[in-house]
Amino acid sequence: MTKRILVIDDEDGVREIIQICLESTTNWEILTASSGREGIEIAQSQHPDVILLDVMMPYMDGPTTFKQLRAITATCDIPTILLTAKAQSCEQQEFLDLGVAGIITKPFLPEDLVIDICKIVNWNYMNYMIES
């Protein structure tokens, strides 16, 4: 079964890099949103298997978006992985304390992104990799 991943990031370039990286190496369907509000709407209607959520966004940041996703019955159980440039362990611990599934630090290596996502949500990445 194909996994559906929702990428919520306000930066067009970051969304595009993640989408290209994931679509070129896996059989996953990638959905994208440019804001927390749009991401919540897509999560409610499309029910992704995982959400990749940027921490630093205008209007509604990642932690606020995550809290709203947790408050909605249809989205409260979707594993959410934060994408952040904040590498300090104390900052990362604050995010983990929110209840996110995990954290991926920017910048990330495109070839490691699938492996990192699979490790965080306990999927066997070999089941999803496209053979080259």
TrEMBL record:
Keywords: Phosphoprotein. InterPro entries: Bact_response_regulator, CheY-like_superfamily, Sig_transdc_resp-reg_receiver. Residues 4-121 form the Response regulatory domain. The modification 4-aspartylphosphate is found at residue 54. This is Response regulator. It comes from Nostoc parmelioides FACHB-3921.
